Amino acid sequence: MSEITAPKSPVTAEQFADEIREQLKYAQGVTVEQATPADVYVAAAVAVRHHLMDSWMQTQHDMVNGTTKAVGYLSAEFLMGKQLRNALLNAGLTEQYNAAIESLGFNLQDVVDTEYEPGLGNGGLGRLAACFIDSLASLGVPAFGYGIQYKYGIFKQEFDKDGKQVETPDYWLANEEPWGHIDYNRSQKVSFGGKVVKEGGKKVWKPAWSVRAVPVDYMVPGYASGRVNTLRLWSAKAEDEFDLLTFNRSEYLSAVKPQVKAENISKILYPEDSTKEGKQLRLEQQYFFVSASLHDAIRVFYPGESKPDLTTLPDKIVFQLNDTHPVIGIPELMRILIDEYGYDWDTAWSITNKTFNYTCHTLLPEALEVWPADLIGELLPRHLEIIEKINEQFEAELKAKGVGAVTIKDMAIYTGDSVRMAYLATYGGSHVNGVAELHSQLLKDVTLKNFSDVYPDKFTNVTNGVTPRRFIKLANPRLSDLITEGLGTDKWLSDLELLKGLEPLAADDEFVRKFAAVKQANKVDFANYAKREYGFDLDPDTMFNTMVKRLHEYKRQALKILALIARYADIKSGKLSADDVMPRTVIFGAKAAPGYYLAKMTIQLINNVARVVNNDPDVKGKLNVYFPWNYNVRLAQHLIPATDLDEQISQAGKEASGTGNMKFALNGAMTVGTLDGANVEIRERVGAENFFLFGMTVDEVDKLYADGYGPRKYYEADPRLKAAIDMVADGTFSNGNKDTYAPLVSDWLSKDWFMTLADFHAYTAIQSEIEALYAQPLEWNRKALINVANSGYFSSDRSISDYLERIWHTGPLPALA
Ligand code: CRA
After folding, report:
1. Once rounded to an integer, what is the mean pLDDT over residues 619-623?
2. Which of 312, 496, 690, 769 is 20 to 30 A from 617 via CA?
3. Ligand 1 centre from 660 Cα, in Å?
4. Which UniProt keywords apply (predicted)?
């Protein structure tokens, strides 16, 4: 860990208030009296940026002039969450800000509430990237996050009157966005299309069109490190705004066509990729940000040099490829080195190989990108040539190592028809890592087995982590205070393993009661929040049981909802008296990909189960289901600290890691989960007796597939499962319409690819264990506290330390004077 401590900001609350006043007057043109909370938010954000400026410049200076290798984290997603509170915390300005805002006559929360969350990511992968750049800065390691400033982030989710998901565009830049600085003077040109010609024996790419990549810089302040790194998100602009000749012919729309085409590149996060056009746009995005970032790094590290010695590039910066999305960076760096700087192939390959590493985040084959070769050929003809040559070299290398012809064919990076980006990344970089022990093992044993046989040393694991600053300190101030009280220090915020010191306190009933009181107060807070934001009436005296994550079949929201329906069916049939039901509030949060039919139908089902169950007097309010729409980082920060029981119930071998599981354990929720992803490591650390484990293991899943899985057998054998599925089929949750969920029911009974039915019995069986423990609040909270005490390992600071040691081989900048 870094020894650097933050220079205590000398600013007083009065000065901070003056800075806000000045900004309001000279930049925004409003008096304090005229100002709205939104005005004050912008002014406060600008004031915070000003306070970070010296550290930002110093960090860049030390990075470029020193000998510490920097990290470039290339990621198509950065799901940052709101910035103001986090920046204040990390800059040590929270108290001054609070006092200043109040002295100006504003309510703190009103001001913070005006900040609009940028949704520049889909889920875990994007949020992980945000945690990682926070930790890099907090550890004092010089780093760039490189990505795209999408104009529209992930869609805004609403539900229609039938409970169906409706997607609306999320125009997060509708109001002034004070954090990003657009740096027009440091733009890069990125080119596409055209053809490769031979000129004087050299291959020359003659592109057909180009766009201008303009960097938008976000400061990334480290917590108590005095260091501020950069998140550089590229925005696409046209090289020429419009064609005046066409415009003068009154063809106004045609005149702006090139502009539209250019700006489309950074218009939207992950466009649909089921059409040819969508695919092409996605590849354009990937190449756009990667090409701009690589050129930018050369500009930054070799300032003003027309003939830089790029053999030193791997000593200046190491690039991490966050999944396959930035992998086109490998042929792009080859192209830059060979075509732009005149290096020979072998030198270029050696530089490239040392500069890149690849993190794989999935085991689902459909998430490992494969590009049609003709698409790459059309859009990036020179890159396709380079990829072909890389593949030739690769095959020769394999042959020399004695690998058989069949295996060589299996391992092809370029098959003639397509390019396998995960294979290109594995061969083209120095290291490959999975994101949890189990996942890394499965990568070696299954997904990338051939590669791990030939290059065993490339493979390693780095288990994911989450930043305790945002997800404990900011999200859960009550728990933070209690932890600090229990440990007698707040150093845990930069050394999370210190939480271990709480373990003895689990034997102290007084402390456990305080811990329980924190959870209860958080539940009351969340109930108020849910009332205000969604109009829900949550009862904080029931168990809060949460399942939040993207909606995907493998994550098995269906398992949760079927178990809930089974319990409802028990009440309806009189098998169970509502009086004997432990009161439970089940809270779902999930977005489904717009084109994912069964996932969207599951959302509709959950909403309608909520409607029916919450309004049935027979249930006597014992079971309640809520589905707050538009799950995002903000909602996570409110909901996670208020949760008693967290659901991590994916089919074993499908969830690469999960990071929600870590956030919940750190906030004192108990977990019900399968042996999947990082659940395995959480359980190992918190102790098997403090984790509700159920369900098949990876081996059992594999065996069942091999033996031939038939879900109907489970339906026939388990009357409760049958009752639940029958209820979905018979129209109970669709106003009598039997067709509404027919595709879902038919999938469960005939395919059930992720074996929801096979795990149903185990899942419902563990509920009695859960409820027995919940009936003893002191014992429940003791176990929950043990979870907190033993989850320090899941700090993203630890993940980053692992990357530094195992993959990046660099460390913090020298301590600040
Ligand atoms: N969907 C995995 O599924 C993992 C995150 C971050 C995911 C999660 O289990 O925690 O990555 N994979 O490592 C992914 O995005 C393309 O693959 C995810 O967020």
Report:
1. 97
2. 769
3. 11
4. Carbohydrate metabolism, Glycosyltransferase, Pyridoxal phosphate, Transferase
